[in-house]
Design goal:
The protein is α+β, with helices and mostly antiparallel strands. The protein contains 13 helices and 31 strands. Bound molecules: guanosine-5'-diphosphate (GDP). Keywords: Cytoplasm, GTP-binding, Nucleotide-binding, Protein biosynthesis.
């Protein structure tokens, strides 16, 4: 393949995540983007309709039951010559680690804001991660079919709460709760919205025309037309100037108004987004910057999932391609083990439908059948150019439980399940010093992870869990630069619980920072780390 052809493939790719607070409309918007991309033909209008049709990105049963997204799904489709990869991020705060890793794999993000609620807690957290990465962030103000805050107030809120200036790409026409359409600032045209009576199940065309056209002025009403003209003038005069450079650095967010449920403004958003969002970017590595145009293949693993589809009992690892061309069956160098691995069954996704793919390019996400080789953050590269991408950060666990199988006969499945789910990065696994292997200590960042663990062990491994919450909130990895620390060499070890992590590194669990203070004061030769010290 020539450099020119590779370049062409890279430039038409857009890989992004949608971030939002639960219920802002992420699932609905994802589904509508697929609808406009022709990847599905009838949108389910998720959760709003009695038909119980679930959004195509809702994979796991637990998601349906609880109405939250547990795992990040990956969807690919084409639109107007673009190849789009959407990575769905869980909206729930308990899944910050998973979400964080997903955001490492994207080139831009779409932030959905509920017009009535404005910037919410989870939006803030996710936004912060995107900001740290310096990726472009696009804003979609959703649910414009309802009453909400005024567009001006929302712009101010984004600026004040998130600290980013917003540039409205379009502007709602009409009065709050009864918007008739949007004014497209780039094209200087009015786009009136029409409803076909199916609540957005189908793609619908909007009526488009010039803002000066008297027909439109009449359609939207004299007062609304006048108000619109005033708003436009105000935005042009007093608003932020559009600056692509700032957008690309995540310093200015293009802001769109619409309603995912009724398809209002969705197509316009998609087209403008594709035009402005960046193609796959270069990444840092142990060997300097890796350019996507580099003809040598490289990728990293950002997600591992066991039993993704109950119909195929298997484990899939997802890689994000960073450079070069991927071809099915190619052998790559696995940096962590130093081995060559043949990538034989690469898969891509449209929800439950998996397809074996023959080739893929930077920006693409490929699922690899994984017999347990891959770890989170692993680098895959070409033998001719060995390096590794930076490790993912590890988050300190804050909640702990002792778990064991209710039925001792199921011990084998229990150990298998716990081990696999730990490898996925869903929970952190510890073993109490001196204890047998019938029980383990599990550490998580949030309590919902325990429920997910319990549910998945039962459903995927047939194991009922006995779970006892432990009175600890702080974990510290310990090192003194000499010998391995043991319960007898640590003063005050009985003030907490002495455990080992899966790499057999010593860790102390204590109830709070105060208890930790006593331990650190009395063990001055030991260093204490909130995450494994080699991270
Ligand atoms: P998620 O939790 O962010 O994935 O949100 P969902 O897409 O599941 O949407 C949450 C709820 O808001 C559902 O009941 C949707 O039908 C509803 N919803 C989504 N978009 C819109 C919209 O544009 N207008 C209105 N009125 N409701 C919407």
């Amino acid at each position: 393949m020539s450099a020119e052809e590779l370049n062409k493939e890279i430039n038409r790719r857009r890989t992004f995540a949608i971030i939002s607070h639960p219920d802002a409309g992420k699932t609905t918007l994802t589904e509508k983007l697929l609808l406009y991309g022709g990847a599905i033909h009838l949108a389910g209008s998720v959760k709003s309709r009695k038909t119980q049709r679930h959004a195509v990105s809702d994979w796991m049963e637990i998601e349906k039951q609880r109405g939250i997204s547990v795992t990040s799904s990956v969807l690919q489709f084409d639109y107007n010559g673009y190849r789009i990869n959407i990575l769905d991020t869980p909206g729930h705060q308990d899944f910050s680690e998973d979400t964080y890793r997903t955001l490492m794999a994207v080139d831009s993000a779409v932030m959905i804001i509920d017009v009535a609620k404005g910037v919410e807690a989870q939006t803030k957290k996710l936004f912060k991660v995107c900001r740290q990465r310096g990726i472009p962030i696009f804003t979609f103000v959703n649910k414009l079919d309802r009453f909400g805050k005024s567009p001006i107030d929302l712009m101010e809120e984004i600026e004040q709460v998130l600290g980013i200036r917003a540039y409205p790409m379009n502007w709602p026409i009409g009065i709050d709760g009864n918007y008739q359409g949007v004014y497209n600032r780039q094209k200087n045209q009015v786009e009136l919205f029409s409803e076909d009576g199916t609540h957005g199940q189908n793609v619908i065309a909007s009526e488009v025309g010039s803002v000066e056209d008297p027909v439109f002025a009449e359609r939207i009403g004299k007062e609304n037309h006048q108000a619109l003209c005033e708003d436009i003038e105000l935005l042009d005069m007093a608003g932020e100037q559009f600056d692509d450079e700032k957008v690309q650095h995540g310093e200015l967010t293009p802001m769109f108004f619409g309603s995912a449920m009724t398809n209002f403004g969705v197509q316009n958003f998609l087209e403008e987004y594709l035009r402005l969002a960046p193609p796959p970017a270069a990444r840092e590595s142990s060997d300097g910057i890796i350019d996507p145009q580099d003809e040598k293949f490289s990728a990293f693993i950002f997600k591992i999932q066991a039993n993704m589809n109950p119909a195929h009992r298997d484990r899939l690892s997802f890689m994000r391609i960073c450079s070069g061309k991927f071809t099915r069956g190619m052998s790559v160098y696995h940096d962590r083990t130093g081995k060559m691995i043949k990538l034989a069954q690469p898969q891509q996704f449209l929800a439950q439908d998996r397809t074996i793919i023959d080739e893929a390019y930077p920006g693409d996400i490929v699922g690899l059948f994984d017999p347990g080789i891959f770890g989170m953050g692993d680098t895959l590269c070409s033998q001719g150019h060995k390096f590794h991408f930076p490790d993912f950060p590890v988050f300190p666990p804050e909640q702990f439980a002792r778990v064991q199988a209710k039925d001792t006969m199921k011990r084998k499945q229990f150990v298998k399940g716990i081990t696999e789910l730990t490898q996925e990065g869903a929970v952190q696994l510890f073993q109490q010093a001196g204890a047998g292997t019938e029980s383990y200590i599990i550490g998580t960042v949030g309590s919902l992870q325990f429920e997910v663990l319990e549910y998945r062990l039962k459903n995927e491994y047939g194991v009922d869990l006995l779970m006892q919450m432990q009175p600890y909130e702080v974990a510290r990895w310990m090192e003194n630069g000499k010998e391995k620390i043991t319960p007898s060499s640590l003063r005050g070890a009985d003030r907490g619980m002495f455990v080992y992590d899966i790499k057999e590194r010593p860790v102390l669990l204590v109830s709070n920072e105060w208890a930790l203070g006593w331990i650190t004061d009395n063990n001055p030769d030991i260093k204490f780390y909130p995450v494994p010290p080699d991270k």
